[in-house]
Design goal:
By secondary structure, this protein is mostly helical. The protein is built from eleven helices and no strands.
Length: about 260
């Protein structure tokens, strides 16, 4: 149920950021294809599917499609930093003087810098001759009101909240020794870094290694930790990936029929 809720939020976000130029169904399909593409390319590079898919299936220009993807990733980073800061606050007594706490603070600082660049660069890009070619892209990035920015920030926080709820519920039914929610938040944040900082498709190996390592620090055995990591990946990737397969099968046939009619 949480995966379905997250899929609907992803769909709504893409629809809103496109300002209605992408239909909810097209947004749903594109986000499903992103999950399927994660099995084929490193990190979140599968997000590059969206601009091309939207250009092919809707009236959204490709520059605006790229701007949409950038906005989604920036606000996701904002949500990640806020959730990390909350986790740091809940576990501050353990992290006093610890390097992990310093890294969290550094991450929040980097996020603030990226947000500043996100808001400032599109407004000054026309003043930088070497970046003039990206002027249309910058204009697409600037298309948002303060209310829309606030909405996207809240949406990002909602998505991370749902992610924390997902691992909390899954861990509860996993049969592993009980852990407080704050510790499960830490486990999820560390595993998320293993998914992003990787050179393998879908973070295969690095994601599981990060999850196993953090679970081991809580005294979870290697076999149990590996099983937890593998099944949890299927928990959040399987349904969206199958939806991506459905999109490929359905739209692939539709496009082929269109080409056949055109050649006739």
């Amino acid at each position: 149920p949480i995966i379905i809720m997250m899929t609907l939020v992803f769909t709504w976000r893409s629809f809103v950021l496109s300002r209605g130029q992408v239909s909810p169904l097209q947004a749903f399909k594109a986000n499903s294809l992103v999950y399927l593409g994660m099995w084929l390319v490193p990190a979140r590079m599968s997000e590059m599917i969206k601009p091309f898919y939207f250009k092919k299936t809707s009236k959204l220009p490709q520059q605006q499609g790229w701007a949409l993807v950038v906005k989604e990733r920036v606000w996701d980073l904002f949500g990640f930093a806020c959730t990390s800061l909350l986790t740091f606050g809940l576990l501050m007594d353990r992290w006093a003087g610890d390097s992990l706490g310093v890294r969290v603070i550094m991450l929040v600082g980097v996020t603030l810098i990226i947000l500043a660049v996100f808001f400032i660069l599109p407004r000054v890009i026309h003043l930088i001759p070497i970046l003039n070619r990206f002027d249309e892209f910058a204009k697409a990035l600037k298309k948002a009101t303060p209310f829309e920015h606030a909405t996207q920030a809240c949406t990002a926080l909602l998505l991370w909240f749902l992610s924390i709820a997902m691992i909390t519920i899954y861990y509860h039914f996993s049969g592993l020794p009980p852990l407080p929610v704050a510790d499960l938040m830490l486990i999820f944040m560390v595993s998320s870094l293993g998914l992003v900082v990787t050179v393998t498709p879908a973070g295969l190996g690095t994601y599981e290694a990060a999850l196993v390592a953090i679970l081991a620090s809580y005294g979870i055995g290697l076999g149990e930790a590996v099983a937890f990591a593998i099944v949890f990946r299927l928990c959040w990737m399987l349904v969206p990936s199958l939806l991506g397969v459905w999109v490929i099968l359905r739209d692939g046939v539709t496009y082929q029929e269109g080409l056949n009619r055109g050649s006739a």
